[in-house]
Specification:
This protein has six helices and 24 strands. Strands 1, 2, 3, 5, 6, 10, 16, 19, 20, 21 and 23 form an eleven-stranded mixed sheet that branches. Strands 11, 12, 13, 14, 15 and 24 form a six-stranded antiparallel sheet that branches. It has a three-stranded antiparallel sheet with strand order 4-8-7. β20 and β21 form a beta hairpin.
């Protein structure tokens, strides 16, 4: 039985922010449900909004017909949480040397570092959808080259990645999978291109109606050259698609949408903000027993190293363990969309409400900070601020991974000292039936999945 793991081994104040209210969905008749199997919904329009953001973001709901409550169990935190006061004043943005609203011409607003060349500065930010389940898709290729990676929950309480490229590219990224609702918010947030394998009829309709539809790059709509199938023994066909970021940028150039559009919201500083609390171990336990994420801080190089379901998470090409300079946890409400069905698990789709505002946690240099995120729906920019919205949180210049979780820090454990992740991995290796002798030095071995992927059932917490 899973419990909400909220370990306050270090001081810090947790805050809850109120999310926008929603209207009740109209029940579907059997005839209506059958029609939705082939026809995109018409009762949940996604508004078209200007590309230029308003500072600060507003908490505008995406849809008029609102999804039902998410399948997650009722959360009972292990400590008393005091809700943060409702914001009555507009947050102000304090100017910094780098960001959050203006950046020197040669600085990448995704990393706070100089663009490596003119080509990187002049091309558009690119989001590539990458699979993380079942286990056989690991290790993935090209995640180490991304400026930013979002990891978020999809149907079945497993995770998927949105890898965001600008400074660097990769000739092989993947395996590439389908678009999800959250991607439709990430594209305007970063003013990005979106590369994906395809989408179901409902989400595809949203993409085709968006003002950025020409920035959607997929074989589903005739963009084929940047993608290729790479068959591998034991992998199903849907796990064999990979992409080349350089060819994707060329495809965008042919569509005349490969300009160097930027975004706003991130502030960077070489030195961490005052008031950070020591924390070297970040663990996120999703409500599927086959999916968890761990980050451990290495003081030697000042980076966080990633573990996936107990094993070191490495790149398939380099064999090096994935690492990042910043880890940011975003709390966001997850709700069901019963008007949209997911073909992979034959269930309803999850919508992650990553617009408005919510609690954020920044981890850098072995320290963590409580803050708030702000994003105006359908517009550019994601702001990370200290509580109250008056001062920006400062990221360490470099790469960043975002972990999007359910409130309140659902399944998250923070520890000042790292656990023995190596010992855990060795125990997994010792119990596997698959030999790892030939692959352990190059790629992380995986646990062979069962023939039918498990669909976890939430249980009530005691």
């Amino acid at each position: 039985m899973r419990r909400l793991a909220l370990l306050l081994t270090i001081t810090g104040t947790l805050g809850l922010l109120a999310f926008a209210g929603f209207a009740l969905l109209t029940p579907l008749t059997e005839a209506g449900a059958a029609a939705q199997a082939t026809v995109p919904p018409t009762n949940t329009p996604r508004p078209t909004t200007p590309a230029t953001p308003t500072i600060p973001p507003t908490n505008t709901p995406r849809i008029t017909a609102t999804p039902s409550a998410s399948p997650a169990p009722t959360l009972t935190p292990t400590s008393t949480l005091t809700p943060s006061p409702t914001l009555t004043a507009t947050p102000t943005i304090t100017p910094t040397t780098i960001g959050p609203n203006e950046y020197p011409e040669n600085i990448n607003p995704l990393t706070g570092l100089p663009f490596p060349n003119e080509e990187a500065r002049n091309r558009r930010t690119l989001i590539v959808k990458v699979s993380n389940f079942p286990e056989i898709v690991r290790p993935q290729s090209g995640l180490d080259k991304a400026d930013i990676v979002f990891e978020y929950e999809v149907e079945g309480a497993v995770t998927r990645f949105a890898a965001i490229y600008r400074s660097q590219g990769a000739e092989m990224v993947g395996s590439i999978r389908s678009a999800r609702l959250l991607d439709l918010e990430l594209v305007p947030m970063f003013q990005a291109l979106l590369a994906y394998s395809g989408a179901n009829a409902w989400i595809d309709n949203y993409i085709l109606e968006a003002d950025w539809k020409w920035r959607a790059l997929s074989p589903q709509h005739g963009v084929n050259d940047p993608f290729e199938r790479v068959p591998q023994e034991g992998k199903a066909y849907e796990h064999t698609m990979f992409g080349n970021t350089y060819k994707l940028w060329e495809a965008a150039e042919a569509r005349q949408v490969n300009d160097g559009a930027g975004m706003r919201g991130f502030a960077f500083a070489d030195d961490p903000d005052p008031g950070g609390v020591p924390a070297q171990d970040i663990f996120i336990d999703y409500w599927n027993e086959r999916q968890d994420t761990r980050w451990q801080y290495n003081p030697t190089d000042g980076r966080y190293y990633r573990w996936n379901s107990g094993l070191p998470h490495v790149d398939a090409i380099t064999g090096a363990q994935l690492a990042t300079d910043n880890v940011i946890i975003l709390e966001a409400q997850h709700v069901d969309r019963p008007d949209i069905l997911d073909s992979e698990v034959s269930g309803v789709v999850i919508e992650t409400i990553l617009w408005g505002s919510g609690t954020a946690w920044l981890f850098r240099d072995g320290l963590w900070y409580e803050g708030e995120w702000y994003h105006a729906q359908g517009r550019s920019g994601l702001w990370l601020m200290f509580p109250g919205g008056e001062e920006a949180l400062h990221l360490k210049p470099g790469q960043t991974w975002f972990e999007v979780v359910r409130p309140v820090m659902y399944g998250v454990e923070i520890s000042e000292q790292p656990v023995d992740a190596v010992g855990t991995a060795e125990a997994i290796y010792a119990t596997q039936t698959q030999s790892v002798a030939l692959t352990a030095t190059a790629v992380a071995p995986y646990i062979t999945p069962s023939p039918t992927p498990l669909t976890p059932t939430p249980v009530e917490l005691p």
